[in-house]
Each structure stands twice: as structure tokens, then as C-alpha cells.
Amino acid sequence: MVKCPLIDSPGRVPVIPCKGNSPVIQVPRMIRSLPNRLALRPTGLKFTLLIVAVAAAPSFLRAQALPTASRMFSAQAGAGISINAPDYSTGHDKGVTAYADLDIGKHLGLEFDYHNISVWTPNDIGEVTILAGVRYGFDYRRFRPYAKLLAGRGIFQFQKGSYTPTASSYAAFAFGAGVDYHLKRKINLRLSDFEYQHWNYGNGLTPWVYTVGAAYQF
After folding, report:
1. Are the C-beta atoms of 212 and 97 separated by less than 8 Å?
2. pTM higher than 0.85, yes or no?
């Protein structure tokens, strides 16, 4: 390295090192070592990671809490096909069912059932029930077994063919059990639902109803 003349100071003794015709600026050793002095030591790194973890904790906890919160409240509405033993004549009748469930918490819930067992009636006897009540269930993998206790009204029909068409309404209650299966994110299958009903009809009418169906979960 050689000395080069200062362009702005003619006549002075050159004091700036040059490389060719370009001056080379020397950086003091203290300044050159400044990045190393400012580098994070292990203690500083641990402290920084701790701050990041504390800042991220609320978001992580919220993300973990969302699935639990969503399980605390769920509703579904569905439809199915049903078969019954009317307890008035021999044989079995067939019909359609609509149902809705509102689960509150992990186990308790409400259920509404509408059974219209008057579509296929070999003996011209139709039975319609409108029931609502409570149910208790629990989750086992994708399955949800449950038991229920319902009350409402039953409509007994004499249909055209063997009888003069008439219909009468009676108080009714039912207890039953079933199993739902969580097929997809919004679809549940009702694999089995059995109700044993008691109607306030004469000395007591005790039909049973068996249903399979599918529901949309909200």
C-alpha cells in the first residue's frame, strides 16, 4: 500500500493510504469489533426466546380452546325412515321421521322427534307422534350413544280402505336409546334409534318405533 496525495489539500504531505489512485479508509479496531460486542450471548438468546414464547402463548391457548368450546354447544337436524309395531293390529307400518337435537355440554341435550308412520300401512292404521324432551349422550371415537325421555302428542288414524277416515289425538310419552355416527365434519348418521311409546289411548297403547337416518350438524 502506498501514500496518495490529497486532492483537496495540494502541497500537504499525504497521510491517507491508497490503492492505485483511490484512497483506502482504515476503520479503527474498536469499531470493527463492535458487531461482535453487540452479538447475543447465550443468556441474551434465552431471554429473547422466553419473550417470544410468552407473547405466543395467548394465541396458542386460544387455538387449543376453540375445539373444546365448539363441543360445548352443538345442534343437528335430520330425517330418516321408520318402522313401527302399532300395538293395535298385527304387522308393521312404515313412514318417515324428522328430528332435531341440541346438545349443551358434553352429555346433556334436548331432542325433538316427529314420526309419521302412516305412509305404508297394510292394515290401514296410521300413527303420528310429536315428541320433545331430554337426552343424555357421550362420545366414543366417532360414535355417540344416547338415551332419551320424551313427551308430547300422538295422533291415531283410521285410514281409507278398511275404515272411515278419522283421527284422534292423545297424550303420549316415550323413552328410548340410539347411536349417532359422526361421518364427516357436518354430517352425522343415525345408525339406530329405538323408542318405546305409551299413549293415553283406552287401556294404553304401547307402540315401538325404530328409525335410521342422517343429519346436518350446525
Report:
1. no
2. no
